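Dear support,

I submitted the protein below through the web form. The confirmation email said the job was done, but the results page showed an empty box. After a refresh the structure appeared. I'm attaching both so you can tell me whether what I see now is the final result or a partial one.
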Amino acid sequence: MDIRKKWARLAGLCYLVIVISGIFSLMYVPDLLIDWQNPELTFQNINNK
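What the results page shows now:
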């Protein structure tokens, strides 16, 4: 396999990991930290995690 093809596949894999981690951080993490009705609890959640 050509060296450029190997680097392109590695770059594609890195991009896929970044996209998956971005989706995770936008969908799952806010549900753990943010309580929309209680700002004090949100502050505590952010400080404790």
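Response: this is the final, complete result; the empty box was a page-load delay. Residues 3-48 form one domain.
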